[in-house]
Amino acid sequence: MALSLGGVKIKQDLEGRYCLNDLHKAAVADGANKRTKEPGKYMATESFTEMFDELTTQNPGSLPVVTIEGRSGGTYVVKELIYAYAMWVNARFHLHVIRTFDAVVIGHIQLVEGKQARERARLEAPALTDAIKHGRLAAGKETKHYHFSNEFDLINRIALGMPSKAYRAAHCISPTDSIRDHLTPCEIRCIEHLQRVNASLIDVGMDFESRKQKLSQIYIQRHSRALLSEIKRLEF
């Protein structure tokens, strides 16, 4: 999990432990006293010893602290000791560390969820194309390539406020890139849901205008509030 505090990159070792020396640099950049808040002084405290003993007891096969020699060396500690050191520095730096870790974790979760939603949306797409083909076949109508693009643009217009071509231009997305890879988690979930519903509406024979109205209604009821909240969160 990549971590940066106050412009200081906190290195990690192969086991995922964090460099306490880097955290000290970040604490100093945050206003902490360089000499009194050195890692060595913290590691001489009773609270560090108690935390170290407890971590060792709970995880006997894992070392909570290691020292690495060389250019990228230093003292590397587990996340619990990062929090403990930050609390020892001062309350402000402690909160800074907690909030930074939370932001990184939440960002990672959203990234994973976004990838999963994009994959679901991709898997839902054939169901929509099949519904279009079978629906037109049942009605004795010929199927052209634009019938598929029209349906996907219907979803884009409702979920994104514009067709795919306009969205690419507005966000400088290359024609070879997938739009889905540039969407937020809420936008992806909205598109995934509307694609699935649209396929079902086509299967029951609902005409284009009626489906457009129904999908717009579902968008307002199920997705518009979440998307607006997401936009506000990204702005701030």
From TrEMBL:
Domain of life per record: Bacteria
Pfam families xref list: KilA-N (PF04383)
SMART domains noted in UniProt: KilA-N
Domain KilA-N: from-to ranges: 1-104
Classification via PROSITE patterns: KILA_N (PS51301)
Protein known as: KilA-N domain-containing protein
Organism name: Pseudomonas lactis
